[in-house]
Structure formats: C-alpha cells, structure tokens
Specification:
alpha/beta; Rossmann fold; five-stranded parallel sheet; four-stranded mixed sheet; globular; Guanylate kinase
C-alpha cells in the first residue's frame, strides 16, 4: 500500500482581494481538504465566529504561543497578530490529509521557509481599482486605514514571484474552480507520485 502524505495548500494574496470569500465558497462544496483556522488578535468582524473564521486570542496569549514555538508562521499586520498554529497542520499532513491555509502574504513567505514542499496560490484582483472598491465597500475601515491597506496591497502584489500559481478573483465561482483544478493537478504530479511509489517499492523489497 502506498503511504500518501497530505499536501499543504496555501491561499494568499493582498488584503481585500477576497481570500476569505473564496475559501468559504471552496469549503461549501464537497472537498476532502482540511481547513487550518488562523489565529489573530484583531477583534471579530460582524458575523465572524471564534473557532470557525479565526481563533481570536489576546496579544498576551498569542505572544506566549510564539515563545513556545507553537506557530508555523505569524505576522503583525496593521497593528494585529495573525498566525497559524503548528500542531493541527502537522497531524493532518501525517495522517494523509490535505491541509488548506488562507493567510496573509507575510505569513505565507514564512510557511515557504518551514514547508517549502507546500503549494502556494496567489489570489489577485482583476485590477487595483477593484481592490480599492472592495476595501471601501467593507465599510469597516477609516479613510487612513483604507489608504494604508491599499499601500500594503501594492507591496504584497510585488511578491507574486514567490508563488506557484496565480488565480484572478474576478468571479468567486471561477476562482474556486481554478483552485480545485490546482489541487487535482498537484496530486497527479509525476515527482509526487513517483516518490510515493518508490517508497512503497523499497518497503516491498525488504
């Protein structure tokens, strides 16, 4: 029998691009992916639920987890911490399950250092004007914060070269279908399948 270790998929992109919307739509469909919930010190937005959208923690609790090396990645963004707890991700990958992270760009680059074998997907808006409208339409940001988020987004878009795939989020359903295609294609990659078969052959010869 071939032991299949899970694949870590990372969806990232500039603030306001719709990462959360694409992730929610993806998981509303029939999927074997396991979602790794991020942790943050920012307050919940309207409708967000602790343990579903994010783990909402105090700054002190978050910093203790950093000290205990309990995070795969973490970053400070517009005054708040965001990060991914390590234990759940490692357990699921070892059990052969694919894990899906939806995180900020700074965090994704840290994951690339710790899990270079991960599959990195960059979600981009159709245009910067579209991104600006999305941030404004949230209605949760002050004018200064809208400006700082847009400036940060422009800098993040320049980091696209660190990713394996780029998906344009012009329509949510279309973006979700593209992400699903990426998941399927990664499982069919020659080097991934060949590596698993070679391990199985080596065990069979013993």
């Amino acid at each position: 029998m071939i032991d299949k270790k899970g694949i870590l998929f990372i969806l990232s992109g500039p603030s306001g691009v719709g990462k959360g919307t694409v992730r929610k739509s993806l998981f509303e469909k029939d999927t074997d992916l396991k979602y790794s919930i991020s942790m943050t010190t920012r307050p919940p937005r309207e409708g967000e639920v602790d343990g579903v959208d994010y783990f909402f923690k105090t700054k002190e609790d978050f910093e203790q987890m950093i000290a205990d090396k309990g995070m795969i990645e973490y970053a400070q963004y517009v005054g708040n911490y965001y990060g991914t707890p390590k234990a759940y991700v490692e357990e699921q990958l070892e059990a052969g399950n694919d894990v899906f992270l939806e995180i900020e760009v700074q965090g994704a680059l840290q994951v690339k250092e710790n899990f270079p074998e991960g599959v990195f997907v960059f979600l981009i808006p159709p245009s910067l004007e579209d991104l600006k409208n999305r941030i404004i339409n949230r209605g949760t940001e002050t004018e200064d914060l809208v400006h700082s988020r847009l400036q940060a987004a422009k800098e993040e878009i320049e980091m696209m070269d660190y990713y394996d795939y780029v998906v344009v989020n012009d329509q949510v359903d279309r973006a979700v279908q593209t992400v699903q295609s990426i998941v399927k294609s990664e499982h069919c990659k020659r080097e991934r399948v060949a590596f698993e078969y070679k391990k199985a052959l080596e065990r069979d010869e013993k």
